[in-house]
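User: Teach me something about this protein's shape.
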Amino acid sequence: MAEYLSKAMALAQDAAKLSLRFSEGLMDNALEFGLDTPGGFYDNAEFKLSQVRKELGSGTEKEKITGMKRLLAAVAKGHDASEYFADVVKNVASGNLEMRRLVYMYLLRYAEQEPDLALLSVNTFQRDLTDSNQVIRAMALRVMSSIRVPVISPIVMLAIRKLAEDPSPHVRKTAALAVPKLLRLDVSLRAELETVVERMLAENSPLAIGSVIQAFRAVCPIKYSMVHVHFRRWCLMMAQLDEWGQVELVKLLIAYARTQFIDPEKSTLDPDHKLLLRCIHPLLQSRNSAVVMTAVSAYFHLASGEQMTVIAKPLVRLMRASRETSFVALTNILKIAQLRPGIFYPHVQSFFVAASDPPMTRRLKLQVLALLVDQGTVGLLVPEIANYTRSAQTDISVGAIRVMLACARRLSNASVDCFQSLLLLLQSDTREEVANAAMQAVRVLLLDGSVRDSQDRRNMTLYDILCYLTSLLDRCKADIARAHIFALITDFAKTKFGCLHSLDVLRAAARGFKEEGTISKMQVLELSAELVMLMGDTNVGEAKKDAERISMALADNRQLLLDIHAYVFTLARYDIGFEVRDRARTLRA
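Assistant: First, the predicted structure itself:
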């Protein structure tokens, strides 16, 4: 029986908390903006502004209210109504509650633009701070704190100190929101505001806690001694706050925990550290994307590697939201995957490119896929990436080539397959951007040994590969791709291919030097300088015998090589591109 009674009491307490949160939310949203404004005031409101000044000066409250509604309707439609500020201020002391609400709404919009005229009503605002209506008290303080005149800073300070202890959570929330505005107006009040904020931190209402945290982060963001006593209470109240209050609170607790707790990778978690993560975990299922991203940030900074696995699903879920939300989620996924790619391995298919994805989303997805290359995911990735390389959209093909390069470099058993796919792509795809990216990937794989050191080269020798790439110079027109081919010949000038064919390649390049692109010209200059250097050097190569063979092969055509070298450098000396001229001078020196 006692067990049933305890459960009933717990349910009653939860229901009371929910009721409190619901009622306070209604006060915050409905009371302040719950005016009954007929839609007719929004129709052609800007064409009836000529009547507003007459209506505001009328002797009847009904006409004044009509004028104010017409004026606010024009403001809501984007029209500038600052010229009526003086006429509105005269009605700030109206005895009609609805009229005062309308006046305060207008003043909230234009108080910063007309601070001198707003000062005329300060006495009325001070009187309204003691009004019996909580909405009037809150709006009076909001208008006072929006007047950007330093002379009234002490008055606003007194109002904040007074309303910080108001019985209404809506008013206390307004007082907390006024703190950052007053600090921006008068920095010398920081010490007094710290005292007020310290008292505000004892706030128990879920409606006002978020605003209090915002005030704390604006006034004294690193005074964590004020946070110690409230830490556990805030953790337990986290689920009761509104979404933006949760965002502010989690941001504060992240900064607090990073300075007060030990790195979870170096030791076991403190009980308070565990409490914080346990209370943040439900926020990962929030419907608000900002709350989810803040909770993900908390786990990224505060959780151990094993605990971070829970953030993968919420981030993947956000990818299916709006384009903007998807972009933010993918940007964060990319950053996390650079450090801990393993948590996204089970969701690799979620990053496959869809036909409806915008360019920014496609680019980020392909970057993430390049990080998720692993022995367990390669079976899914390689066929998908092979399809992307044949896409009609150039950015997808280029991104797929980068993913293929990542596969070849990380997985030795897939390097030869990826390399052959890149060679076929160079032969079949004529797009300049694709050729540039594919040739760059081929060069990287040849230089880092991913292909040359592979056990399964399938009868592909370095000589055959270089011969094939050289044959592409006849039809490849992409400047960067051609430059990569010339660079490869320069890099492997000491090999069998360099001994037999490098001079022929240089001769063909010199013949069409004027038509080459800037980058290709600079690479041809380097090839020419490298061959001239090798011609007289007998200490190059892996063995002295090979070095002598290379030197002798070039020495047989010594005069031809020197003539080509002089011809190429003469053309470069008078080239239209300053980069080519500078490179020629550098190599000649």
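Now, about its shape. The radius of gyration is 36 Å. The chain is about 65% helix and 0% strand. If you'd like, I can walk through any region in more detail.
User: That's plenty for now, thanks!
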